[in-house]
Design a protein that fits this description.
heterodimer, A: about 300 residues, mainly alpha, MetI-like fold, 2 domains, two-stranded antiparallel sheet, 15 helices, about 75% helix, B: about 280 residues, 14 helices, about 0% strand
């Protein structure tokens, strides 16, 4: 037996398979088969209990007529409009920290800190902070700015921007750290030379920082774009539960909502499939635009 | 340059300081607020939600730990996340070894496939995954969530491991292989020690992500006894009757482990987050 094992391990392919088996097994059962299953379930009516019932394209037809789906899609696209802030704010912060500000190490740590907070903690914290009679409003009233007090999470007109601000804040730390790592690779002589030539701070950023960190900017842009479609669920769940009305329904929250609050697991699977198509399309478009921009 | 007058320093840097100082406040306030509020009574919070607790009380912290079951949630989180992190270390480094050092025809394709899984939204797989776990009879069990979490973080962990191992000098490994050491020995005694930095990064990131994960915890742990900390907190927060000091106590308890990791594992954290992002 040991001889056989040794012989088997002698061949690279067999050894590789041995080392790969646990990973492949878990990935197949918990990641790959579910995708195939999701595809199947999206063509069924299923309440989560009994056997799913095949209904063909029924769910997809319903998605197209579903006002909540369109509201969620619209909200997702509105969130996407904030992308420039999402991409440039951490770059600006990283550039400031990198420019040799005294206390850079401390500020770097502080800016990064929120990145380790769980979305649940962030959501619950802001939910309390922004309540009508919560700390923010009572603070504003106390310092005589009571007219700024606002129904932050209950006003359908402003709730989405409020939520986007929270999301941007929550990812600011990671973005800044990633940009800082990219900035560290730029030779300081470039900046010195530009400064000697009389380039202002802003000019140096535009002509040195942005082109030199281009790959990182692209990476972060794609990362944020995908995240807005796929990882906002816990924030929505703890901040607003999609409300008021449907004003903060986002697609990935709606999938959960349709399945686990609505009990329509088949329909929710179809929503998930539509989401997959949308994410792929958005990413594909972004890739294409980035590539075109590079060759131009 | 060495004789910069303080006044010049202030003149030059005050706008940066102002902005970074404001961001620092935003970062620190959640901790201040949660700590202040956890020690307040319900009435004191209603009267003054901002200030420090002038008459600190342990009432709500105690309630959170006992009847609020935060201690139970914390224990569940530690078991589930702890085992998943260890499993990920083992399984991902084995896979990384196969894909990066052994390499065979098709290993590149397998790696690409694994990376593609990273882009599949959780919303797509959550319903079938829920079905799989319940068909395996693993609902409301630690094992069910451990396996789900392992699968969730495996693509990233394998990617991290493979790219780290690809950067190692091949001579060391080849020398050992020529000496006739078996693959398992090369893996255990040579590759693993060399990979220590990657392993610590992987463990830190996986811990933080999984310790903070809500969606799959919510799906699989529907029984109060097996809930993890984020799930318990989200449920507590969802009840309109929850007093704010009680919620703050729960938040405070959940912040402490993450904060400890943040300060202990600073370096491996930023190393991991920036891997692959630059270039």
């Amino acid at each position: 037996m040991p001889g056989m094992v040794r012989k088997l391990l002698g061949s690279t392919v067999a050894a590789s398979l041995l080392f790969l088996t646990p990973a492949l097994l878990i990935l197949i059962v918990f990641r790959l088969l579910p995708i195939e299953q999701a595809f199947y379930l999206s063509f069924t009516r299923w309440n989560g209990g009994a056997e799913p019932e095949w209904i063909g394209l029924g769910n997809f037809a319903q998605v197209m007529r579903d006002p909540v789906f369109w509201a969620a899609l619209r909200n997702n696209l509105l969130v996407l409009c904030s992308l420039p802030v999402w991409v440039l704010a951490p770059l600006a912060i990283a550039a400031i920290i990198h420019s040799g500000v005294p206390g850079a190490k401390f500020f770097r740590l502080m800016v990064f800190l929120p990145a380790v907070l769980s979305p649940v903690v962030i959501g619950a914290y802001f939910n309390v902070l922004l309540k009508h009679n919560g700390p923010l409003n009572s603070f504003l009233r106390e310092i005589g700015l009571g007219f700024l007090a606002h129904q932050w999470l209950n006003d359908p007109d402003t709730v989405l921007p409020v939520m986007v601000s929270i999301l941007i804040w929550a990812t600011l730390g990671i973005g800044t750290i990633i940009y800082l790592a990219a900035l560290a690779q730029i030779s300081p002589e470039l900046y010195d030379a530009a400064e000697l030539d009389g380039a202002s701070w802003l000019q140096r950023q535009r002509h040195i920082t942005v082109p030199e960190t281009r790959r990182t900017i692209e990476f972060w842009t794609l990362f944020v774009m995908i995240s807005t479609f796929t990882t906002v669920f816990p924030f929505v769940y703890t901040l607003t539960r999609g409300g008021p009305g449907y004003s903060t329904y986002l697609l990935d929250y709606y999938v959960y909502d349709a399945a686990f609050f609505g009990g329509s697991f088949g329909y929710a699977s179809a929503l998930g499939m539509v989401l997959l198509v949308i994410v792929s399309a958005v990413c594909g478009l972004a890739f294409w635009m980035l590539r075109r921009g590079r060759t131009a | 340059m060495d004789a910069v007058r303080p006044i010049d320093k202030i003149k030059r840097w005050w706008p940066s300081w102002l902005l970074l100082g404001f961001l620092t406040l935003l970062s620190l306030y959640p901790f201040v607020f949660v700590t202040f509020t956890a020690f307040k009574s319900k009435r004191a919070y209603a009267a003054d939600p901002v200030g420090p607790p002038w008459q600190p009380t342990l009432e709500y912290l105690e309630r959170a730990l006992t009847s609020g079951n935060m201690l139970g949630y914390l224990l569940n989180s530690i078991i589930v996340v702890g085992v998943a992190v260890l499993l990920l270390l083992l399984i991902a480094s084995m896979a990384g070894y196969a894909l990066s050092i052994l390499k065979f025809r098709g290993s590149g394709a397998i790696l690409l496939g694994i990376i593609c899984l990273l882009a599949v939204p959780a919303a797509v797989v959550m319903i079938p995954l829920y079905r799989t776990v319940s068909q395996l009879g693993l609902m409301n069990s630690h094992l069910g969530l451990i396996l789900t979490y392992t699968a969730l973080q495996l693509p990233f962990s394998i990617y991290l491991m493979t790219s780290f191992l690809n950067g190692l000098p091949r001579e060391i490994i080849e020398a050992a292989q020529i000496d006739g050491a078996g693959q398992i020995r090369v893996f255990r005694t040579i590759v693993m020690p060399l990979a220590a930095p990657a392993l610590s990064t992987m463990a830190t990131l996986n811990f933080l992500w999984l310790f903070n994960e809500l969606l799959f915890g919510l799906l699989i742990m529907q029984d109060d006894q097996t809930r993890t900390l984020p799930v318990g907190l989200a449920v507590l927060q969802g009840q309109n009757t929850t007093p704010v000091p009680l919620l703050a106590s729960g938040l405070l308890i959940s912040l402490l482990p993450v904060l400890a990791v943040f300060f202990l594992a600073q370096r491996s954290l930023s190393r991991g987050l920036t891997a692959g992002a630059i270039k």
